Amino acid sequence: MYVPSKFTIDDDHAWRVVADAGAGVLVISTKEGLASVFVPVIVSGDRATIRSHVARANPWWRDVEDGMEVLGLFLAASAYVSPSNYPSRLESPDVVPTWNYVAAEVRGRLHVRDDADWLDDQVRALTDGFEAPRSPRWSVDDASREYVGRQLKAIVGIEIDVDSIQGKSKLSQNRPPVDHDTVRENFRVGTLAERNVADRMSGDD
């Protein structure tokens, strides 16, 4: 990931991006070329591992060689920026469109986990994590054990030993303050994606 100094964030911030995204794209290199899958993830407390699962019917996991390199891409905010948002263009018209976004890239080593207890723990941890802010909360135990058992047989676990993380927060920090603030204020009344970016621009998150 190309990260100019203006847009650099530290590892703690990058991990918050992963948590905010909740799900990401995992990319591997196979004999047939690159292959990707989009999955929800849960990060261990020490940030040493990322766990997820895929449908057993998905051929992606069958191309996984134990310990192979994987690239995880996580996007927490994203919106197009028009030059029309820049008041400074009235004095200096040489401007171009761009894109504001907050993203993180994780590199690690991949393992397939096909143990029933591992899968049960992963699904419960994932569900509990995403249900935590909700009311009422749904629990895996709200479904019958027989049904949950059948669902667990239909998935395969994925675990990543994390090697590195890198984050980027590109939120018009490189523009004059009047441009930055105008982008933010226009985004506040824009689409859901634009409002998400505006919220982050308030603190250049």
Question: Structurally, how many domains make up the residues?
Answer: 1
- The Cα radius of gyration reads 20 Å
Overall pLDDT level: 95
Total E-strand runs:
8
Helix content: 25-40%
Q: Can you name the CATH architecture?
A: Roll
User: Which sequence of SSEs, written as H and E, runs from N to C?
Assistant: EHEEEEEEHHEHH
Number of helical stretches of at least 4 residues: 5
User: What can be said about the biggest beta sheet?
Assistant: 8 strands, antiparallel
**Structural class by SSE content:** alpha+beta
The third-level CATH topology is Pnp Oxidase, Chain A
CATH superfamily: Electron Transport, Fmn-binding Protein, Chain A
User: Which CATH class?
Assistant: Mainly Beta
Shape field: elongated
Provide the fold topology.
Layout: E1 8-9, H1 11-21, E2 23-30, E3 33-40, E4 42-43, E5 49-55, E6 68-81, E7 98-113, H2 116-131, H3 145-153, E8 155-170, H4 177-188, H5 192-201
Antiparallel strand pairs: 1-8, 2-3, 2-6, 4-5, 5-8, 6-7, 7-8
Description:
With about 200 residues, the chain is of the alpha+beta class. Helices cover about 30% and strands about 35% of the residues. The protein has 5 helices and 8 strands. It has helices spanning about 10-20, 115-130, 145-155, 175-190, 190-200, and strands at about 10, 25-30, 35-40, 40-45, 50-55, 70-80, 100-115, 155-170. Strands 1, 2, 3, 4, 5, 6, 7 and 8 form an 8-stranded antiparallel sheet that branches.
Brief overview, please?
The chain has five helices and eight strands, in the order βαββββββααβαα. By secondary structure, it is an alpha+beta fold.
